[in-house]
Amino acid sequence: MASATPRARRSLAHDPRLAWALAALFFTVGVALIRTDRFLHDEGLLSWFFAGILADEPIATLFFLKARPPLALLYAPISGLGLDVFLWLHVLVAALAIPLMAAVARALGQGAPNLVALALAASPMMLAAAPSGVGNTDAITGLALALYLLVARRSPAAAGLVAGALPLVRAEITIYVLALALYCLPRARRRFLYALPAVGLALALAGALYHQDVLWFIHYPPTLTSPGQDTPAFGEHGYAQASLGQTAGALLSIAPLLGLLALLPWRALHPLERALLLAGLAFGLAIRGLPFTGLFHFDDSPRYALPLIMMMAPLGRLATTEAEGRGWPAAALYVALLVVGDAIDRAEGSRLLLAAIAGWALVWALLRRARPRLSLALASALALAAAAAPQLYEATRLASDDYARSHAVFARWVEEHPARARESRIITNIHLLSTWSRRQGLFEAGVTIDHIVSRDIEEELRTLVNQENGQYEALLDALRRHFYGRPLAADALRPELLEGDVIFVIHADERLERVMPRDQWAPLMTTLVEEDGVRIAAFTPPASPRDR
User: Fold this and answer.
1) Does the model's pTM come out above 0.70?
2) Three-state SS across 56-106?
3) How many CA atoms does the CB half-sphere of 376 hold within 13 Å?
4) 204: how many CB neighbours lie within 10 A of its CB?
5) How far is CA 21 from CA 18, 114, 523, in A?
C-alpha cells in the first residue's frame, strides 16, 4: 500500500498525537468511572482474584486454565496493591489499544487512521468494560498489539507469540487469531506461523509434567464443556436469548459506527483489512450460533461480542476517494435496516437503531456529494455522541444497577442498626456486597462478610482442578484470601453449625435454592427488610431436642 502523503500526515485525521490524546482522555474517563463503582463487576473482581491467587500460588495457578494464566501473570505483580490499582492498570491496558490500532491503520495507508482510534475510544462497551476489570478488553488490546507488531513494526515472530497467547485469555478471540494465520500463510510472514503455537505448546508441555498427564488441557479445560448438574441453565436451550432489540443495542454499544462499514471501498481494502472484516462476520455468527450446538453454554452477555470492534480496523478508508462514490447498495442496506429498526421500535420501544441509521445515512449522503472532510467530521460527532448516550451504557449490561439497589438497601439497614451490623455474623450470596461495603466504609477494618460458595462454583473446582497432585488444596487455600468475601462452603452452611447472631443478606436465585432449601430454612428466618429483590433476615437457631 502506498504510504500517506506529507499533507495527510499533518492532518488531524492522521496525526499520531491525536490518537494518544484520545487514549489519555479514555484513561481519564475510566479512572473517574472507577471512583463511582458503577461498573464494579463480579467477573472483573474474579480477574483480580486470579492475579492474587497466581501471586500466592504461581505454579498451581499457571496450570489452572480457568484463571487465564497470561492475564493473571500480567496483573499478578500489582494484585497486592489493592483493587483500585488493579482497575487503574486495567483501564491503562485498554487505553493502549487506541494508539495501537491507529498505528496499524496508519501503516496500512489509511487516510484517516484516527477515525479507527475514535471508534475504539468512543465505544461505550470499551468505556464500561475497562473500569469493570473484565478480561474482554485485555483480549482486544492483545489483538491490537499483535496487529501492530505484524504490520507497523514488521516483527511477525513477536506478533505470533502475542497472538498465540490470546486464546488463553479469551477463547472467543481464536477466530481472529486464525484469520491472522490465514493472512500470513501465503505471504513472507511464515515466522508468525512458526511462533503462533509457541506459548500454548510451552504451557502444554510444562503442564504435562506438572499434572503427569499429556492430555491435561482436555481433562482440566478452562471451562465446563457442558452445564454441570449444579449449574443453572440459561433458558430453554441452556443459555439466555436476547431479543432483536437487545442485540441491536449491544452491537451499537460495541461499535456505534458499525453501519459505516457498508461505505468502505472493498476493492481498495488491504488484504489484512478484508481478513479482519471476514473474521468479524464469522465471529458474529459463531458467538450467536455455537450455543445452539451445545458445544458452549455461555450466556448472551454483550461483552462476549466485544471482539466485533476489530471490524472497525478499515474505517479510516472513508477518507479515500474510492469511498466517495459508494452507491445504492449501501442505501438499500440502510432501507432494510430501517424496516428492522421500525419493527424493533414498535415491539420494544427502542429507537437506538433508527437513530444510528439516520447518522450513517447522513455520512453516506455527504460521501455521495464528495464531501469527505464533512463526512469524517460527522462520523466523529456521531461517535462522540454515542460515547455519552446513557442508553448504550445500559445496553452493555455491565452497569451494576441491580447490585446498586441491593447495596443501597443493605447500607440503609447498616445505618439504622450500626451496632448489630458490626457485631453480627453477616452471610450473603451477593457477589459485590463485601467489596462494595468495604469501599464505601460501611464497616470498621477487620469486619468480614461471609460469602456463600454456590454449588456450581464448587463443581467447577472439582472438575477443572487436579485433586491428586496438590493443586486443588493449594488453590482452595489461596481462594480463602481472594474471594468475594470469606468463603463459606455449601456443606458448612447447615443450621446446626451456625451460632450467635447471624444476619443473612440474600437475593433469591436458583443457585441459592440448591444451597439453602426453602422448606428447611424458611422456618428459621425472620425477615427484617425485603426490598428491591434483596432480603435481610435474622437467623433463629433450630431448637435442640433438649429444648423441645
Assistant:
1) yes
2) HCHHHHHCCHHHCHHHHHHHHHHHHHCHHHHHHHHHHHHHHHHHHHHHHHH
3) 26
4) 15
5) 5, 11, 60
